[in-house]
Amino acid sequence: MNVVIAGGGMVGLTLARLLRARGVEPVVIERMPEGAYIPRGYMLGFQGYEPLKEIGVLDEVWPEGREIAPQGTSAVAVCVEVGKVIHAIARDLPVMYEHSVKDLVFDDSGRVVGVIAEGPDGDVEIPSDLVVACDGKQSRVREMAGMEAVLTQLPEGELSWMSSSPSETSFSMAYMADGGHIGHLSWPQGSGGWRSCSRVGAEAALAPGLDAVKEMWARLLPESRLGVEGVESIDQVRYSEPELLTTPEWWKPGIVLIGDSAHFFGPETGISSGIGLGDAHALSEAIAQNRADADAACQSYVMWRAPVVRPYEAMDPGRERILTAGKQPPGPGEAWPPQ
Questions:
Q1: CA separation for the pair 323, 111 (Å, rounded)
Q2: Would 51 disulfide with which of 13, 87, 281, 330, CB 3.0-4.6 Å?
Q3: Claim: this prediction has a pTM higher than 0.85
Q4: Is the peptide bond before 127 cis (omega within 30 degrees of 0)?
Q5: Is residue 56 helix, strand or coil?
Q6: Distance between CA 298 and CA 254 in Å, rounded?
Q7: What's the whole-number average pLDDT of the chain?
Q8: Pick from 339, 280, 277, 275: which is nearest to 310 by CA?
Q9: DSSP string spanning 254-289?
Q10: Nearest Cα residue to 192 out of 236, 156, 232, 222
Q11: What is the 3-state secondary structure (H, E, C) of 223-255?
Q12: Confidence of residue 39 (pLDDT cuts 50, 70, 90)
C-alpha cells in the first residue's frame, strides 16, 4: 500500500515507524525544517506508552522526564521536554522536510489518489493508496478533502506561561469556585502553567502585568511557585481562546484523519497526544492486516478506535462548562483579570 503521511509531528512520525516495522514504507511530508520544533513541556499519557515502546523510544525518553502519579514500576504519565521525544522518533527516519501538501489528487470517482507537495524545488506529485492527515487541529488536508470539522468554542479564555525553572512537583491542578481550573506541568528543564479566565482578549488579560500573574499563580496553586517565579517577562505569558474539535467522519475513500486532525480535547484532559499515538498504533495494524485494501483498513481502524475516542469527546469537562458557564461567580482572588 502506498501511504502518504501529511504531517511529520509526533503522531505522523510514530505512524511512519510503526508502518515500517510492518513492512510498509510511507512517504512523510513535513513543512518545518529538520530538527525544528516549538520547545515546551509535553505530558506523555499512558495511552501513548505502547506505540512508543514498540518503536523502541519509550525506554529512551522516560528517564529524561518526570513521572506523574507513579504507580509501581510505571506512572499515569511522564512529563518530558517535547524535543527529546520528537528527535528520538525522527532519528534516521526518511522525511520530506520543508514540504507541505498543496493539493489533493482525485480520480473520476472522487477518490483521493495522491497529493501535490510543494517545497524549495517546486511541486511534486506523489501517488497514494491512502493519505493520512496528521497536520493538526486546523488541518489543511482535511479541508482539501471536504471533510467536516466541528469546532466548539469553550466559554472561557486561557492564560498560560512557560519558564526554564522546574517546579516542586511534576503536575498539579485545582478547580475554582466558578468551575474553572488552574494547573501546571514541570519537566527537568522547566515548567509551564495554564488557567481558565474570562474571555477578554489578549490585551486585557495581560494588562495586570507580570508581577500580578506570578502572585496569583503562586497563591492559587502553591505547587507551581518555583516554576512561575522563573517567568522573567510578560512575553512568556500567553492568552488564547481554546476550542474543542470533533470530526463526524474519520475517513473517506483514499484519506483518513488521525490525531489532532480528527479530534482535539480541552486542556484539562491531558490526553490529546496520547490518543493520537494510539490512533497511529491502531491504523498501522489495520493497514498491515489489509495491505491491498485501503478502505478495509480504514473501516477496521474506525471500528477499533471509535469506542475508545468517542467517549472521551463526549465527556470532555469543557463541554460541561459550556452548559454551566456563568452560573457560579469566581471565588475570592480567583477572577482574572482581577475585578
A1: 40
A2: 281
A3: yes
A4: no
A5: coil
A6: 9
A7: 94
A8: 275
A9: TEEE-GGGTEE--TTT--HHHHHHHHHHHHHHHHHH
A10: 236
A11: HHHHHHHCCCCHHHEEEECCEEEECCCCEECCE
A12: confident
From residue 158, alpha-carbon distances to 65, 154, 225, 228 in Å are 25, 10, 19, 16
CA angle 99, 100, 102 (to 5 degrees): 130
Grid coordinates representing 211 are: 508581577
Overall CATH class of domain 3-150+244-317: alpha beta
pLDDT value, residue 4 = 98
Kindly report, residue by residue over 11-38, the tens digit of the pLDDT.
999 999 999 999 999 999 999 999 888 8
All structural domains of the chain with their residue ranges:
3-150+244-317, 157-240
Q: Using the structure block, give the residue that is written with the C-alpha cell 454551566.
A: 324
* Cell representation of residue 63: 528517564
Q: Give the whole-angstrom CA distance, residue 138 versus residue 143.
A: 8
Please write the tens of the pLDDT for every residue from 147-201: 999 999 999 999 999 999 999 899 999 999 998 999 999 999 999 999 999 999 9
